[in-house]
Amino acid sequence: MRASNAPKEQLALRSFSKTHKAESGFANLFARSDASALAPPLLQPLPPQEPLNSVSPMLTKAELQSLSANTATCILQARKPSRELARPLFNTLFQAYNAKLAHTDLAHSERTEQFISKQGLTQTPEYDSQILPDPLHLSSYIRAIDKAIIALLGSGQETLFIAYPACGPLAPLLLPLLSHYQGQGITGQQLRITLINQHPEVIASLHRLLSELELQEYVQQMYCGDPCSYNAPMLFDLVILELMPLDSNCKKQFNIAHHFAQQLSTNGYLIPQQVDIYAVMQAAQASDAHVHTDLGVVLSLTAQKLRNLTQSKLKQEQPLCTQTLTLPILSKQNPQYLLELYPYISLFADEALGFNGTEETLPLADLKVYIDHIPSTIQTNMILANSGDTLTFYYDFGAAPGFRVSKSQSK
To answer: How far apart are alpha carbons 85 and 140 in whole angstroms?
Structure first.
């Protein structure tokens, strides 16, 4: 085992037999809100009027374990999983997972409780368990995690320590893979998993699901608390994160990524390995939608860059200057342009989430930046730019996190 700077008192955290609930100073900040307005597509074909506790049919333990393993196996064996292949596989699996969770002893109030933490809104277990992530997103992540694990085991390491912060009640990026590994003879002595979530009922749901899938042997610890407060007694060989800088939860994801990048072993992997944000000038008119000009990368994140990002900058919510780009000189025949940002997420090896590849990598149009044209209504926060102007891109860690753009003053 590699050395760690964690205090000796944290060695007790390694026992799976005891779930540790972090001390919280947010008891007075508990708040409820209606998540329906923000809800992504729900799992289908669950009728919206059907209560969770009547989901049927209920699979036996053996059937659920087989379904979980076979789902991962199908994704791993496919040459290149399509959305048509992946969607029904994950839809069926998550239906079965949710059916098991619907029969837990958790009260409805516990499954539907939200609260506010330092990292932002913590969603309810029911909300998280009903989200249907993009199937290509799931497929790519599962294949990337598998390739990373096989590479690490192939390098001669006997035991891998793996962290999955903000894992949710289904831990969808890992549980199907563990079921697959169990059938392949990869044991809990080789893979030691730490699952982390801030919601107590999420941890309770995971306990139930792990028991049904008989995957307890893989679990090093289940930690209930703020992921950014967790410091392991060892360094991790693999950290699994969903880092989407254009997502509404980007600030929370940034903080978690920064915190766990400090806890990677020398040869450890952060998944995703690299996140690049590209700026693109996109034709404003629908008839010219095929016309665009790539400006280049405005933000690139890796584990090393996250390590180098100072904690003081994050705590003080100082803007991070990411890149300065000069707009190309375009001919008069070219159309008017808007500015768009595209993420390209390199997960591991050849697994990636590319431009428009999944719902999470759709472009973000910065409608406040207009290039070579003036909108009919001008607002004070708009940026009117011309070909040849210089734009500076910032990432704002403040109350409304996200990219900001400023134009250099003409000389």
So the answer is: 13
